[in-house]
Amino acid sequence: MDTLNHRTPGQLIQELLDARGWTKRVLAIILGINETALNKIMSGARALDAELALALQDIFVVPAEKFLSLQQSFDLAQAQIMFRHDSGRANRAQLFGNLPVAEMIKRGWIDADDVRDVSQVEAELTKFFGAESPEQIFPHAAKKTKVNGPVTPVQLAWLYRVRQIATELMAARYSPASVEAAIEKLRPLRAAIEDVRKVPRILQDAGIHYLVVESLPGAMIDGVCFWLDEATPVIAMTLRYDRIDNFWFVLRHELEHVLKLDGQDEAMLDAELEGEQAGVGENVPQIERAANTEAAEFCVPDRDMRQFVSRKAPFYHAQDIVGFARTIKVHPGLVAGQLQHRLNRYDRFRQHLSHVRSFILPSAPKDGWGDVYPVGI
Question: Which residues of 148-187 are buried (b: 16+ CB within 10 A; e: fewer)?
Answer without folding.
Answer: beebbbbbbbbbbbbbbbbeebebeebeeebbeebbeebe
